[in-house]
Amino acid sequence: MVVEIGVTVYPHFVTKDKTLASILADVKIKNYDFVSIFPHTLGLIKNGLVVEKKLRNIETTLRGVGIDYIVRMPTSVNLRDNIYYTRHFRVAKAVADVAIKLGAKVIVMQSGRTGRLDLEIEAIQQLADMVGPFGTKIALENTFSVKDTLYVVDNVDRENVGFALDVAHAFLSAQGNDEKLLEDVKLGTDKTVILMIHDNFGKLFPQVEPEDALAYGVGDLHLLPGEGKIPFGKVLKLFGDVPILLKVKDPEKFAKIPTKSGLIELLTSL
User: Domains of the chain (ranges plus CATH)?
Assistant: First the structure.
């Protein structure tokens, strides 16, 4: 299995005791190929504009460690929001600008939840046309249903816009049913630009307080593969060499993630 594997560096991982540079070095030592970063939480965007001075520092850090990177849009970006559309679009455009300036090859974003789909489609087309000449792709992530997100990808209809398949979100959408999960995943295999992995138990209910979620095994838990119920071995068989992104949110778990080869072994055994 020769495939690029990266890890998400969540904003709360970077603290005064743990700099971005040291986190990147830890990831590099474990042989991972790339990281996913959130430029807006690194102080690179302020009031919808790029902070050029900070951008240079981050660029130096990334180049210094010598690891590849992709960028992530803020979760709050909702290009279907017809009331505050211009504010959302400004931020999205600033992130796209950062991606161009840092030379990131992929921008991951979530499709909006509610509002006007036509606005979102048009906005993504504009962003795609803006980053396309620089060889950057936009990957739309399924927050829940695979079908809904693929509908947007198909309607945007741009060469450089693909699908960011979050297997764990798809498992929740399939309500923990393996067969349904694999059916849904098959819908998106051709369009998938990046495969996102973390684990859960495929249960959405009852809705509980965040600190009770693990006890109940409900919701989007972002566990390490193998800690939940997702059949990753079967999922990976459906893909060629699509890059994989590990999304583990707990800083202690993140510190203990296996090496790249250890993760590949783990995934194929599940």
Answer: 5-269 (3.20.20.150)
